[in-house]
Here is the input.
Amino acid sequence: NAGVTQTPKFQVLKTGQSMTLQCAQDMNHNSMYWYRQDPGMGLRLIYYSASEGTTDKGEVPNGYNVSRLNKREFSLRLESAAPSQTSVYFCASSGPRLGIESPLHFGNGTRLTVT
Amino acid sequence: ILNVEQSPQSLHVQEGDSTNFTCSFPSSNFYALHWYRWETAKSPEALFVMTLNGDEKKKGRISATLNTKEGYSYLYIKGSQPEDSATYLCAFISSNTGKLIFGQGTTLQVKP
Here is the structure.
């Protein structure tokens, strides 16, 4: 069982370049999330999708867009990368009733450097 | 702004020592609290989902308690082993927002 799969694992971009981070889960979860992890800070929510066809902003959405392509896939796009977006990005999914019954299941992360 | 604080930030113990760390969160609008374990070069994995005041959860040598009235949770590790070395994250869910707010984590290093 693969769980949550993220690609790529590493990426280096120049300022102004664009890229899409891909995420797929095979646990039939409705909810999917994108977080970023920066030194000295907790995981911060960028965007989430409570179900196929819906997306909502999290704490730090500026500079990002997302697409919930289907129930399995949730992608994160940087249209014009900036050095402030250098971070480790995690995709996660959860089953119904996040918090009460279901924790988050995380992918292995994407380490992005913007120069 | 909801604040979730974890202490200490880092901890070094000897193999066999027992240890504990704290997660503090807002005492109002409590919905749930999660603990995750995050090993280097891996992704965070859920340890406990805690929902009720007075909850106590246990998994092997690791246990957690919850006090929603005063807004804290403790994570205990009994007889620490080198394989317990990791960052331990707590995450609070408010009934207002329904979203997880993570603390900064406590990084534990267990020396053999």
